UniProtKB/TrEMBL annotation:
One of its GO terms (cellular component) is cytosol. Residues 19-126 form the Luciferase-like domain. InterPro entries: Bact_Lucif_Oxidored (IPR050766), Lucif-like_OxRdatse_MSMEG_4141 (IPR019922), Luciferase-like_dom (IPR011251), Luciferase-like_sf (IPR036661). GO terms for molecular function: oxidoreductase activity, acting on paired donors, with incorporation or reduction of molecular oxygen. This is TIGR03620 family F420-dependent LLM class oxidoreductase. It comes from Dactylosporangium aurantiacum.
Length: 292
């Protein structure tokens, strides 16, 4: 098996109030061998300084926004952060961009219209500001956004998807673009409690049309999408169980064409505590997949 790039996606890094706890966790992830750290940039106007804090505290760990909303931070603001990060830490920051969702956008008083056109306009702004395509990646789900990811960015960072979507994304992107899906996992071998933990997470996303429409494209029904998701959908979306079973679920995305899997450990809805033990265990289980 060829070595794979294994990364981390965790809301703790934007939600924790403790800068020291955040940087300590990032340093440990680097030591454990994870290649990149992804977390949301939130819905403010600027790129949060938390990304720079982590870059400054680590030596080789990649850091990526997963994602920066194109409705909230302007291309000029994003470009200024990317260029500052590149000067201080060349090649380590990746700007993940996404069209977000109608609800959060409307909450800021902005009309959510034509997200694809908005993304094209945003990328034009980044081009004008001197941010290269290789310095950005798109949170793409549907065919048009995947094609835009291929043509105008380093690749795609799909979120809340199955391995079948990963295979479709690889076909759309071609062989030379980065494909880095987020995959949420539950380290719990009890089916009832593992699925209950998973549903605490899935209920939110199954209320968002961007995600449900994407799942319907792959044959999931209204019955599958109801009440936090059917058992069949939970099992397809969220690898759960023993370390070996979770590793096998992650492996399905690599087999489908992922270059990098961004693992999110579901922590019972607690976004302010870092699940360190889980990432230590996963690092040991996936050790052979890490790049040297």
């Amino acid at each position: 098996m060829a070595p794979r790039s294994v990364s981390v996606w965790q809301p703790f890094f934007i939600n924790s109030d403790s800068r020291a706890a955040v940087t300590d966790a990032a340093v440990e992830l680097e030591h454990l061998g994870y290649s990149r750290l992804w977390f949301s940039a939130g819905f403010g106007e600027d790129v949060p300084p938390r990304f720079r804090d982590i870059l400054d505290a680590t030596k080789r760990l990649g850091v990526a926004s997963g994602i920066l909303s194109i409705w909230h931070s302007s291309p000029s603001e994003a470009a200024a952060f990317v260029q500052d990060a590149e000067r201080a830490h060349p090649g380590r920051f990746l700007l993940g961009l996404g069209a977000s969702h109608a609800g959060p956008v409307a909450d800021t008083g902005t009309e959510y219209r034509k997200p694809y056109s908005k993304m094209v306009e945003y990328l034009d702004g980044l081009d004008a500001a001197g941010v290269a395509p290789e310095q950005r990646i798109l949170a793409a789900l549907g065919p048009r956004m995947l094609e835009l990811s291929r043509d105008r960015s380093a690749g795609a960072h799909p979120y809340f998807t199955t391995a079948e979507h990963t295979a479709e994304a690889r076909t759309a992107l071609g062989a030379d673009r980065l494909l880095a899906p987020e995959v949420a996992v539950v380290l719990d071998a009890d089916a009832a409690t593992a699925r209950a933990t998973a549903r605490q997470y899935t209920r939110r996303y199954l209320s968002l049309p961007n995600y449900t429409n994407n799942l319907r494209r792959f044959g999931w029904t209204d019955e599958d999408l109801a009440d936090g998701g059917s058992d069949r959908l939970i099992d397809a979306l969220i690898p759960w169980g023993t370390l070996d079973r979770v590793a096998a679920g992650i492996e399905r995305h690599y087999q489908a064409g992922a270059d990098e899997v961004a693992i999110q450990v579901l922590n019972g809805g607690d976004a302010t505590t870092f699940p360190a033990d889980a990432f230590r265990s996963l690092a040991a289980a996936l050790n052979q997949q890490f790049r040297p």
